[in-house]
Amino acid sequence: MLIVTISRLVGSYADIISATVARKLGLDLVGRDQVHQMAQSCDSEYNRACSLYETEHGPGFFERIFFDRPSYTSLFESLTYEKASQGNVVIIGRGAQVILKDIPGVFSCRVVAPFQIRVERIMERYRFEKEEAADFVRKYDHERENLIRSIFRSDPNEWSLYDLIINTAKYSSGKAADVVIEGIEKIQKPENDEALKERLKNLAIAKRIETNIRRKLSSSVARNLEIKMETGGTVTISGRIGDRRDKETAEKLAGQYPGVTKVINELKVTEALFGL
Prior knowledge:
Layout: E1 3-8, H1 14-25, E2 28-30, H2 32-39, H3 47-55, H4 61-67, H5 70-85, E3 89-92, H6 96-99, E4 106-112, H7 115-126, H8 130-152, E5 164-167, H9 173-186, H10 193-216, H11 219-222, E6 225-229, E7 234-241, H12 244-256, E8 262-265, E9 268-269
Parallel strand pairs: 1-3, 1-4, 2-3, 4-5, 7-8, 7-9
Antiparallel strand pairs: 6-7
């Protein structure tokens, strides 16, 4: 089972490379169209959040306030885990390299190129003037980076997130795809594909439950809780919560989720969580 994440700078040929890698290896490509379908599964309260996540545009100042809700982070993590659990996928952008960084066998690549080269490519592709193309590149670089920083509190430029960083300044998209494929083929694979799929499915469900609890309780109350899901339906809630009533509410919400058979509530009740 192959799971590939590709992070990119605009104008780096990454979308072409991703499609080529997926085609040559027989993998499903998870780009904007597929993410749009995933976003449709979000309920009405999350439509705007899923739309921003789908397009990778933003957030600006007010959108950063909007995104500063742990429930959104949990939701986007659940969507990525769900897609990864299907196996044999290439997931483009949207912080997948951050979400899946501790999952064995995942190959994460970042595709880059110097600014001026990317500007020239955008000029050629869209028939832009030079300054218009430069503004386009700056805007997309800034918005994609801000999105990952705002949702996941992570820097997409951090090299340790990647197994391969490829600079396409001296590569055609086809040659770059060949390099990526060689890296994918040589990475150490997980020993048990079915066990990995089950782990990813459990992570997806745990994040869905986490999303639901964080939505029902305020961010300041539910920010410091974590959900773990085990095969068979046992859910463990850990972390800190504001008072006993919130602890009981969290347990009740977890128990109501489809497929949950048992809830182990290890939440610690604390006084004011503010500032912690």
